[in-house]
Amino acid sequence: MAVREILEYPHPALREVAKPVTQVDDEIRRLVDDMAETMYDAPGVGLAAPQIGVGLRVFVIDIASEDEPSELYTFINPEIVATSGTQTWEEGCLSFPGVSEEIKRAEHVTVRALDRDGEPFELEAEGLLAVALQHENDHLNGVLMIDKLNALKKRMMGRKLAKKQRAEDAEA
Ligand code: NI
Question: Which of 122, 136, 168, 171 is catalytic?
Fold first, then answer.
């Protein structure tokens, strides 16, 4: 297992539409394991393959808080097959370090996917797990949290990121 580099906005790989996994083999399992290790190292509650520069439809999620046992979910070729309700959470993203914004999403989602062994499963989720599922699924389609903001908030986030970039450049 290895911790991979997480690509940050506006890296162009984050905008690509990821391709389906054709076979869940050892290479894919290695990818999943690296993704989990990278997510826990960050730390974050979710990570999609495009965020480490791999254009495949794979993401991992673990929303357990520090005092809870970890519960890792692996989603390969996920499809959100049903949604209902709305909820708003303050979301962050490992590709947007240091920023968070309130984003409105469905409250309940049903997802179908393959697990780490290539077995199909269906999961009904609500609350933070539903948010994370929608956020990570967006990554597979090249959709990022900044796309979910209104024009004013988009400009504010753009300025915040530019300011942070200038500070980092000054440090370098
Ligand atoms: Ni993200």
Answer: 136
